[in-house]
Amino acid sequence: MTLVLHYAARSDRGLVRSNNQDSVYAGPRLLALADGMGGHAAGEVASKVVIAALAPLDDDEPSDDLLGQLRGAVLAGNGAIAELVANDPDLEGMGTTLTAVLFAGSKLGLVHIGDSRAYLVRGGELTQITHDDTFVQSLIDEGRITEEEAANHPQRSLLLHALTGHEVEPSLAIREARAGDRYLLCSDGLTGPVSTETMAEALRIPDPQQCADRMIELALKGGGPDNVTVIIADVVDVEFGDDAPIVGGAAGNGDEHPQPDSSAARASAVTMPRPQPQRFEPTSPPAERPRKRRWLRSLLVTCGVLIVLAAIALVGRWWVLNQYYIGANRADEVVIYQGVQGSMLGVSLNWQVETSCPADSAQDCTPIKVTDLQEAQRPDVRNGITEVNGLQEAREAMRRLRMTALLPECQQPEAPTPPQQPPQQPPGQPQPPESTPDATPLQTEEQKPGVTCRMVS
């Protein structure tokens, strides 16, 4: 008995995203899917790098240590991400999920990290064989929420583990391969808008390519809120199987094919041509062609990554350097920030560039604190005033705050006038009556610094 894979893969950017950060590879031995994350195309780079690290496994000789091969390739891809971030700090925060299968006859190795998924159809039953590394899945495991509640949880996309260049261990497992098994690997762009029951029905389509096409169509009909990528692979008992690899998504060539008869016609998809069956000769020595193909593929992927990195470095740096907003620093002072609000994996995406007293202001300029502002303006500053276009507009907005939003200065109370001493009369003469100091009139309104007035040093 000779078990081989018949496979198909499809990737689509969806109806909302402007680019596709998923990467996919499907070959005779390797099925791999990565869902990149990180703005300004950084997620696209991360998914490409990891898929490129795994791709050589498709040409390597089968080994008894499938999990060792997978783990080594994943750690190499994660190390490549770390090296890219070290060379360009603007890429900090990029990362990717990964779900991959390495096939070797009657067994296969499975590696997983993140929220992409792998499913198995055996005997007509659909089973999820990976476990989501997400915050909501941890809540489900603890019995704190149900799967129905998780579908609408505000933090359903929060990952607990991903390949970001930091030290991490993926989940690894060995599984038995049987003739008639069908495997589905997919990104969360499918499992989000499409129910498990609907996927199970689509998986009954016999042809892998038609099944993959149907999955993409269902995701787009569900709104296509994210990139969607699927791999369909059948384990069959024949003497020959598919031999040409499929590379798609961010790792592919970007060809676009609109989908007919559905909303998918409004989006583009990356679809590689169906491979032609090739006869395997397991007893013959390795041919030279796979080695050349591996070398050429690695070279092309490396060149593509370098080109994308150069574009990211230029476009990303330009965009971030042109973002400004007004906010409050840790000293509660009103300042101008460059960058965007928030952080990514603990790394701040902004930095203070100017206080409320710029370098060319008068020497007696007093920095503005949030408590110096009227109550109505304080929430705007604490939340960040982002409706500014460049540094000059940010300075103008700061000037308007100083002119129109400051509390009046607190007035210092006048010192009381000391009582005058009456002149001393000679002994025997009556003393004049003691004078009573004039009463200090009460203030008409009590001053409360930070509420009705501001302190000025």
From TrEMBL:
Its cofactor is Mn(2+). It holds the Pfam family PP2C_2. InterPro entries: PPM-type-like_dom_sf (IPR036457), PPM-type_phosphatase-like_dom (IPR001932). Its EC number is 3.1.3.16. The chain crosses the membrane at residues 299-320. It comes from the Bacteria. It is an enzyme of class 3 (hydrolase). Residues 415-435 have a biased composition (Pro residues). GO terms for molecular function: metal ion binding; protein serine/threonine phosphatase activity. Residues 6-235 form the PPM-type phosphatase domain. Keywords: Hydrolase, Manganese, Membrane, Metal-binding, Protein phosphatase, Transmembrane, Transmembrane helix. It catalyses: O-phospho-L-threonyl-[protein] + H2O = L-threonyl-[protein] + phosphate; O-phospho-L-seryl-[protein] + H2O = L-seryl-[protein] + phosphate. Residues 246-289, 409-457 are annotated as: Disordered. This is Serine/threonine protein phosphatase PstP. It comes from Saccharopolyspora elongata.
